[in-house]
Amino acid sequence: MTSDPRHPTLPFPHVSVIGAGLMGAGIAQVCATAGCHVTLRDIDGAQGAKAKRAIEASTAKLVEKGKLTAEVRDAALAHIAFTDALGAAAQADLVIEAIIEDLAAKQALWREIEELAPPSTVFATNTSSLRVADQAAVTDRPDRFLGLHFFNPVPLMPLVEVVRTDAADPAIVARAVDFVRRLGKEPVLAHDTHGFIVNALLIPYLLDAIRLLERHGGTIADIDIAMKLGARYPMGPFTLLDTVGLDTVLHTTRAMQEEYRESRFQAPPTLERLVAAGRLGRKSGKGFYDWSVEPAVPIEGGP
Ligand code: 3HC
What we know:
By secondary structure, this protein is an alpha/beta fold. It is about 45% helix and about 15% strand. The chain has an 8-stranded mixed β-sheet with strand order 3-2-1-4-5-6-7-8. Strands 9-10 form a two-stranded antiparallel sheet. Strand 9 and strand 10 form a beta hairpin. Helix 1 packs across helix 2 (about 45-65). The longest helix is centred in the first third of the chain and has 20 residues, at about 45-65. The termini are far apart. Bound molecules: 3-hydroxybutanoyl-coenzyme A. The site of 3-hydroxybutanoyl-coenzyme A (3HC) has 18 residues, from helix 2, helix 8, helix 10 and helix 11.
C-alpha cells in the first residue's frame, strides 16, 4: 500500500491504527478522509466490524451536513483496510496506537510492532495520560516515537496534541505537526507530562462535577445545564463524561493520580461504581445518562 499512495505528498501516506475502539475508529476515519491509505487493526473481529459501522455512520452524517462530499466519503471508505494481523498493520509510514490505557499492554504491543515494522516507520501513541517516553523506551526508535493525542469525537474535534519526548527527533516532530494540519486539525505542541495540556486541566474539572453531584450540589441535568449556559461549555460535564467513556476517564484519572498523588486526581466512588457496573457512557448505552432513548435522560439517584 505504501508504494501506491493516494496522496504521495502527505507526510505519512499509509497510516495504521492499532485498536478499533471509539478513538481508533475516529482516527482511522480522519486519516482516510485526508487521503491516507489506512489499515485499522483490532484483535477482535467484532470490534473491527463495529468500527466499520461507526465510520460509515459518522461519514454519512458529515455528508448529510455538507461537511464532506460523497466522493471523498466513498474514497475514504474504500481506503480503510480492516485486519486482525499485526504484521500487515506494521507495514506503514506511521503507526498510531489507540488500545487500552494500560502501560504494560502498550509496551507489549510496541515490542511486537518493533520486530515487524520497517526502520523508517514512525510510531505514535494516542495515550491520554501515560508518559510517551515510557512507551518509546521499549523500542529501538525513541527518536521516531511521539504522542498524537486526538479528542473525542475525533471527526468533530479540531485539536491534536503533538507530544514530544526529550529523545524525539525535531524533524519527526515537525513532520507530525505538518501531518496533523493535513488532517484539517490544529496541532499544539505539548511536553511529555502526564495529561499533557488538555487532560491536566479537564480531568480535575470532570471529577469535581462528580464530587459536586455526590454532595448533592445539584442534579445531573442541572449541573449540565449550568455549565452549558453559565460557562458556555459546549456540553455539560456529565454529557462529556459519557461521551469520552467512563472507563477511559477512570484509567486516565488513575494514571494521573499515580503520577501526581494529588487529591484532585482521586477517582470519586461514583465513577468507580459506574465503571464496575458496566455503565461506561454513550458507548455502552448507559452512564450518567440513559442513551437508549432519544433524547438521552439523566439517571438521577446514583448507581
Ligand atoms: N461523527 C459525525 N457526527 C457526529 C459524531 C461523529 N463522530 N458525533 C456526534 N456527531 C453529530 C451528532 O450526531 C449531532 O448530529 P445532529 O445535529 O444531526 O443531531 C451533532 O454531531 C452534534 O451537534 P451539536 O449541534 O450538538 O454540536 P456541535 O456540532 O456544535 O458540536 C461537539 C458537537 C463538537 C461534539 C461539541 O458538543 C463539543 O465540542 N463538545 C465537547 C467535546 C469535548 O470536550 N471533547 C474532548 C473530550 S476530552 C478527550 O477526548 C481526551 C481524552 O483523552 C479523554
